[in-house]
Amino acid sequence: MRLSGAGAGRRRRARVGRLARVAVRSVGRAGEPRTGPGTTPDDEGGTTMVEQAHGVDAQDDGTPAVAVLGGGVMGEALVSALLTGGWPADRVEVTERAQERAAQIAERYGVRTGADNAHAVQRADVVLLAVKPNVVPAVLTEVAPALRAGALVVSVAAGVPLATYESALPAGTPVVRVMPNTPAVVGKGASAIAPGAAAGEEHLALVERVLAATGLVVRVAEKDLDAVTAISGSGPAYAFYLIDAMAEAGVLLGLTRDLATRLAVATVEGAGALAAQGEHPAVLRERVSSPGGTTVAAVAQLDAHAVRAGVVAAARAAFDRSRELGRS
Ligand SMILES: NC(=O)c1ccc[n+]([C@@H]2O[C@H](COP(=O)([O-])OP(=O)(O)OC[C@H]3O[C@@H](n4cnc5c(N)ncnc54)[C@H](OP(=O)(O)O)[C@@H]3O)[C@@H](O)[C@H]2O)c1
């Protein structure tokens, strides 16, 4: 049941305070390891953060309750990441229209599942929207009256602007947009998060905690999400395209398809890991290009075929399309 008036105000402040404490606990100070929910001792007097949280709201263990609306590819990746990151399964609920799929998720992750979005959000501190963009307006209409005061709404729906959520939800609802990518499924994703008008540091920190096990998470302004979509959102497809082309070349040169594919995958994975250490990619490329050697001959062909210009044009097309979809 929703609270109103002064009761709702108190409840909202208490809940936001609790979200903030949990988020700060999770992120920790620079250089400190992250710990699972409810395990960090408080260094100011021996009380645990969880005990302090109990002082605010004794109904749960202090871990925000999460409702994931939509149990498809991305919804499942988020549930998996939450549990990998140490979130208790009993603090996660998933809604899904298809009963069979809901049963599969319940069985796989031990989380509560259902088909009623409004019912699920009544219990949630964090509502994660993982439905297709065209379904978002209908889901918002459904859940707006049931949303708890102070609940954080997070959406991974591509191209749906923050304004759509903010105009459909109660005034002051904190909203954060996320642009994830599919390698999140294996904990190697890259996500950008953008805050709405009512989302503060504590909300961004909480989203970072929710996404921690999906891979890299960066903060951006909403205006940059189309560019993010063009680079990391659509980017996995560019890398798959390159892997496929390298494997095809291997077959052309006499390798079996299986061997050529395994070599191409391991090479792209290894190059990514090396580049992640921070050296400029151009320097890394020069380092493997010995004078008059094989690599420099190959890279000259990439230049002759305007591969760099092709990548830039591809990203530009994705950017334009993302803006177009956001307006429709
Ligand atoms: N997959 C990606 O790589 C990726 C990357 C970035 C962003 N995203 C975003 O993530 C969102 C989900 O994408 P996806 O690839 O996971 O799609 P998906 O696999 O189709 O998942 C969407 C799920 O939501 C369910 N659903 C539909 N209407 C619902 C409702 N009213 N209440 C509860 N559940 C409902 C669908 O069930 P039915 O099948 O029964 O309709 C489906 O299982 C999209 O907004 C997309 O833009 C995805």
Automatic annotation (TrEMBL):
GO terms for biological process: L-proline biosynthetic process. It catalyses: L-proline + NADP(+) = (S)-1-pyrroline-5-carboxylate + NADPH + 2 H(+); L-proline + NAD(+) = (S)-1-pyrroline-5-carboxylate + NADH + 2 H(+). Gene3D superfamilies: NAD(P)-binding Rossmann-like Domain, ProC C-terminal domain-like. Its main location: cytoplasm. It is an enzyme of class 1 (oxidoreductase). Residues 25-48 are annotated as: Disordered. Residues 222-325 form the Pyrroline-5-carboxylate reductase dimerisation domain. Its EC number is 1.5.1.2. GO terms for cellular component: cytoplasm. Residues 25-40 have a biased composition (Low complexity). Pathway: Amino-acid biosynthesis; L-proline biosynthesis; L-proline from L-glutamate 5-semialdehyde: step 1/1. GO terms for molecular function: pyrroline-5-carboxylate reductase activity. Belongs to the pyrroline-5-carboxylate reductase family. HAMAP family: P5C_reductase. NCBIfam families: proC. Catalyzes the reduction of 1-pyrroline-5-carboxylate (PCA) to L-proline. This is Pyrroline-5-carboxylate reductase. It comes from Cellulomonas gilvus (strain ATCC 13127 / NRRL B-14078) (Cellvibrio gilvus). The gene is proC.
